[in-house]
Amino acid sequence: MKRRDFVRNTALTALGTSVAAPLSALAENAVTHFESEDLAPAGPEPNGFTLNFLALGDWGRNGECLQLETARQMGDWAKNNPINFILSVGDNFYPKGVVSEQDPLWHYSFENVYTAHSLQADWFAILGNHDYYSDPDAQIRYSKISRRWNMPARYYSKEVALGKDKGKVLFLMIDSQAIVQNHEDQHPEKQLAWIDETLKKASADVKWKIVVGHHPTHTAGPRVSNYDTLAIRKALKPLLEKHKVDVYLSGHEHSVQHLKPEGFTHQFISGAGSELTYITPGIEYSKFGASENGFMYFSVDDKRLNVKVVSVSGKILYNTQLSK
What is the pTM of this model? Predict the structure, then answer.
């Protein structure tokens, strides 16, 4: 090897060693420890309320009657607005409920319809009249299979905190079908006694009382004077008034409504998850009604309860607020 080549090669080797060492050290110091949430897109911006949830009823039709489109809009809404959970107010599966926890309708009408990542929250469900035609308890058993479906019993209660020293919301999730049809095997008198006692024993820090049942006590839909409306009103309304329940939330009527009959309790109906029925005009206690596919969005803190009715197209059809 010529002397100049030896000198050049030796110099380059030395230079490479001197540069490589700091680069190697730099690489070792640059090890990262990202968690999935560190790399995920930012979630919805806070809206000033501690508790937010969606309410939907009368939906399970294999995606038909705009069920699928309404589900997609729910997913878009939940992507852009905070939600803690979803309430299903009954008639979860048409035409005759589910026969077991393996019934294909779980996939055709629920799992494969409400697919948005934003809807993979807890669903707290109750039974409707159509859910009674097959095996209502299959919907209870499905709670052990699905990560998001929650129906621990045919009726149950749930308390949700509104933040430190801000109180709670008390939810009573009831089985109105057993009461309306007086299903003796379900002992409706025991359920009514449970409703009375649970509301009576509500802790002092409960700021809002919300009862959720399938049948409305009042409506501006087709069932203004129907047997089931009158039956649940007779059985339930005295308890709602006695314990100053703020909201009775239901479905059954295939529309979205806000009603304020005489007394303390506001009635909201969110039954427009798929097939629609008409609104009866001229009902004096009706504050809002629309026969349009959509859902309700509730936002709650210790002093305010806001309700928005959102259509299948994403339009806010109605916006109201109750205050303490």
Answer: 0.88
